[in-house]
Amino acid sequence: MPGDEECPRCRAGVCEIHGPAVDRREITIFAVSGVLLLAGIYVEYFTPYPLAGTALLLAAAVISGYDVLKAGILAIIRFRFSIAVLITIAAAGAFLTANPAEGATVLYLYAIAEFLEEYAAGRAHRSIASLLDIAPQTTRVRRDGGEVTVGVGEVGVGETVIVRPGDTVALDGIVTAGASSVDQAPITGESVPVAKGVGDGVYAGTRNADGYLEVRVTKPEEESTIARVVALVAEAQAHTSPTEAFIERFSRYYTPAVILVAALLIVVPPLAFGVPFLEAFYRALILLVISCPCALAISTPVSMVSGITTAAHNGVLIKGRDSLEAVGLARVIVFDKTGTLTTGRLAVDDVIGFGVPEAEVLAIAASLESRSGHPIAEAILRRAEEKGGDLRDVEEFASITGRGVQGRIDDEIHLLGNAALFPEASGRVWRAEYDRLESEGKTVVLAGTDSAVIGLIALSDVIREDARETVADLEARGIRTVMLTGDNERVGEAVARRIGIDECHAGLLPEEKVAMVERLMDRYGLVVMVGDGVNDAPALARANVGVAMGAIGSDIAIEAADIVVMEDDISRIAYLVALSEKTVSVVRQNVATAVVVKLGIAGLAVLGLVTLWMAVAFGDMGLSLAVIANALRIGRPDAGTPP
């Protein structure tokens, strides 16, 4: 975004221009240079016109690697040795030693890798602005004894906003009048709407379900919950990965060190040992050729690309090489609860009757809930349909905000809701069962009349298929599992016990999830975060690797994450870890092989025991082909078969 202009959509200077995600010019460049590269290789090796082949390869190298070459040359001029310098020297060395195909290929592949990284980063930056779309642009405010609709940015702290049924809360505040159920899932991840009354806090971006609320604003727009989430995502995106930092540090010292050693090899042997100058120069040239980091530079990205491609074929989208590597090194994986380990969909677990059959309790509850659109109602109606029960006629139906519903069935008033709906009801039996079910982390609904509770219905968030097996698989690999949730501690602990999670932290807001992820990073090092909702976006971005459950995840969570599980399948997390560990193993093999071979040939070059063509054939081109062949093993079934 040029200058200090603000985005008209999000009213803040935090996002990129909402333009096309893919630059067609770059796609054209890669297509043209790719054709030239293939044509050059063919002409170079399979026709009697090697000069024409070299010209084609040079054109491919310049077109695809223009930005890399420019950055490398400028860095050399400024004595700032970066990875671009390494690639530039590698390509130039390959052309100067009559290996133009290798030089052009290195530049082409590196340019594509840079493009993919920039594309993923650009999408992540654009996604920050989409967070603010959750909150409304305008809201109703009480002023001068009436209601007026104004822009959210014009509402001051202390003013009263009106939130009617179905409205989205525009600003953080405290309820001063009314009562309602508020869906806080976009912010806290809670699976059940929360009852709000006078004195309770509400958050910007949450949705009012069925009641009327008056809210006194406690924070301006720029300090609201949604604004904080935006700031957290933006801050987290700015963190540089350890791998990137290592590559930069390595490239600063590697190239000048090699050049210095080559210079010493030209000067010292003739002066100290009487070695002829031309022979010393030839040895230095061999050293420079073998030191060109072609195979070393390719060893990691080619393995990562193989792993990323394999993952894509198995429903896992990985946005960067560093993310794939980090997953295999992490010893802690953090899970969000609702929508990740659980489906976010309530289901009836228990129906208990007191003096009446369970079928009667379910029939009365389903009949009353047939008039409601609450998530609990949907779960009870599904259970009644499964049991084949008939719905009764309901008269005088009424919704009692924050407590439940009531209606006349068979000439008798029946109630369905929470314990606050039965202030006059007594009985140790139902209270004991109620406490027991609540202690198991379940949501308990009471059914009864004005004078007595006739039954209980317990519901819970459905645990995902394969969640237990996935956690067990991770623990078998020595990985600690942690669950973060916006639900209360009782619900969180119950779900953690059922799945086998090692550690659970409940009642967390988005910024508290980020803080917890940071504490885990301080304690364990690399941390992987798996989530799906908007409330997970800051934590996904802050973790070393963020994994979004794409089939059910929000757009912002997908954009903020480094890896997206395309299918609604938690077992893909275990597959991702297995694939990453295999990829990291191959990377280590490639790096170790490249270093050992190059050091060995470099040592022989210093002693004058190898020729230039040997250095190129075995230490450069041959080594590069060996590295590529080893990387292709990652895509074989035994290396990347999903569970």
Q: Any overview of this molecule?
A:
There is one protein chain. The protein is an alpha+beta fold. The protein has 4 domains: 1-134, no CATH class; 136-223, Distorted Sandwich (Calcium-transporting ATPase, cytoplasmic transduction domain A); 310-342 and 464-579, Rossmann fold, CATH 3.40.50; 343-463, Calcium-transporting ATPase, cytoplasmic domain N (3-Layer(aba) Sandwich). It is 52% helix and 18% strand. The protein is built from 22 helices and 22 strands. A hairpin with a 4-residue loop joins strand 16 and strand 17 (453-463). The two termini are 44 Å apart.
At a glance:
The chain has 643 residues and is an alpha+beta fold. Helix 16 links the parallel strand 18 (480-484) and strand 19.
Walk me through the topology.
Blueprint: H1 24-46, H2 50-64, H3 66-77, H4 83-96, H5 100-130, E1 138-143, E2 146-151, E3 160-163, E4 173-178, E5 180-183, H6 185-188, E6 194-196, E7 201-202, E8 207-208, E9 213-217, H7 225-237, H8 242-273, H9 277-291, H10 294-313, E10 316-318, H11 321-329, E11 332-336, E12 342-353, H12 358-369, H13 375-387, E13 395-400, E14 404-409, E15 412-417, H14 428-439, E16 443-448, E17 453-463, H15 467-476, E18 480-484, H16 489-499, E19 503-505, H17 510-524, E20 527-531, H18 537-542, E21 545-549, H19 555-560, E22 563-565, H20 572-606, H21 612-631, H22 637-640
Parallel strand pairs: 11-18, 11-20, 18-19, 20-21, 21-22
Antiparallel strand pairs: 1-2, 1-3, 3-9, 4-7, 4-9, 5-6, 5-8, 10-22, 12-17, 13-14, 14-15, 15-16, 16-17
Helix pairs in contact: 1-2, 1-5, 2-5, 3-4, 4-5, 5-7, 8-9, 9-20, 9-21, 10-11, 10-20, 10-21, 11-20, 12-13, 15-20, 20-21
